[in-house]
Amino acid sequence: MKPIFVPHADYQGFVLKQLRTHVGPGIVIINKDWPLLAKLWMTDLSPITTFLRDAYSDRGPEPRDPASMFRSFLLFLMTNPEKGLTECVNVLKRTPIYAILCGFDFDDLPGVGTFYDFFRRLWPAVDKNLKPMKQPKRKSKPKKGKKGEKAPTATPGRVKRLVTWMMRHADKRTALPADPLFEFFQSQILSVSANLGLLGDLSALSAAGDGTPIVTSAYPRSKSTCDCYAKGMIGCNHPRIYSQPDCDSGWDSAREKYYNGYHLYMMSAADSKYDLPLYPRLQPASRHDAVSLVMSMMECKQRFNLGVIDKILLDAAHDAEAIYMLLDHQNIEPFIDLNNRSKKNTATESDIQIAPTGIPICPKGNEMKPNGFDKSQNRRKWRCSVACGCSDAKYGRTYHTYSSDNLRLFPRTARGSEKWKLIYKRRTSIERSNKREKIDYKLESGRHRSTMMWYIRIYAIMICQHMDAWYVSQKDEWDKLKATICPTVV
């Protein structure tokens, strides 16, 4: 039957009643548990019941409260993220205070199967993976990147072709199985952070993007669909059944080794003091950052409705002309570090040359200095001083560059300027956000075998990141309510 909606105020009343009833006889609140209590107390998860109402049947036994089920998973990630779901249930049984905080009577707790049944309702697709398990045999290994560098794209020109296709179909939105998760995350979590001012200026939001490897297994697991091996035929090309069809092998530039799993591309609020995540996208491990950005940017642009993304901060792996073209089409200003592929200067129609960094070089071989931006003609002015001697003009030699001539070399904000440095230094926020997910919340400890469970784990960790930020930003106010909510804290 359909779940019964439990308002958040009723949950708070239940927790308060249980704490006042059981504190003393065997349950003691310690200071270490207070932040956990405060985070769950302030986070209203009751709307998830409405979100999932259609996923439940009209008949059958009364289901567990969806908000309590999801709250239990969040508590598990905040306390024992490196353990499995079975241990999560065991912890609830061993620690009555955790059962109360989840919204359960500690003598009536859900089992492991109940949790997996609940997770299945968060994923509207029939299959738990995005691709079918039966796929052609994978032949080639991904290219190995240089030390500290990511592997190059497998096919030249792929980013440009993808951008061209995306721009042609910009108005076409394709439904994704993870859309309900993002819809709930945006309406109930991101909106709260936005109202608290934790995401930055929503009218001109700065976002940062980067990819990170997610290791799911030591090697690709698959089995044959033919009997060629039994007949003595080794190395046949028949399709195989892969246990993780959405995963493949990729190059981890940080660990400098190959791995099997996903390539998680994450976007975060660059101006957020707490490096809060905005949008995740799981890609195959072999996918390059530039390709992942194109797909993530289009999907995020179509789904994110809390503000306007005005700037995006990216590392040198995204330095492709097609990406500048896509971002210009979306009216987003790119701040991308240059990947200097060539050390040669580019000739122009005059005696001025352009350095690989986009700075004009005067006939004397000196770099010209930026001298303002003309918005009426969308061009940047460069100038050499009179002391340079490259011109007889009293004002010195001047030269103009137009963004339309080369979006990559001539961005709206000049590289090397103080404004550029001030904005671009916030790019590292995405790396700190990814560190929180992978190190603090043990993302790779999931041991899941389906894309469904990996997405659920990722979104739950993102919610925990926002809950942490809510508590830290209002810590003094919540500490004043200790005596009201929890009368005994030791």
Task: Tell me briefly what this model is.
This protein is of the alpha+beta class and 490 residues long. The protein is 36% helix and 16% strand.
Name the features.
490 residues; alpha+beta; Nucleotidyltransferase, domain 5; 3 domains; 6-stranded mixed β-sheet; 3-stranded antiparallel β-sheet
Structure description:
- The chain has helices spanning 8-22, 34-42, 47-51, 66-79, 85-94, 96-102, 112-121, 158-168, 179-195, 289-303, 321-329, 418-424, 429-440, 451-473, 475-480, 482-485; strands at residues 134-135, 205-217, 222-224, 240-242, 248-252, 257-269, 277-284, 309-314, 333-336, 346-347, 353-354, 360-361, 369-374, 379-383, 398-402.
- It has 490 residues and is α+β, with helices and mostly antiparallel strands.
- Strands 2, 5, 6, 7, 8 and 9 form a six-stranded mixed β-sheet that branches. A three-stranded antiparallel β-sheet has the order 1-4-3, with no helix packed on it. The protein has a three-stranded antiparallel β-sheet with strand order 10-11-12, with no helix packed on it.
- The two termini are 42 Å apart.
- It is built from 16 helices and 15 strands.
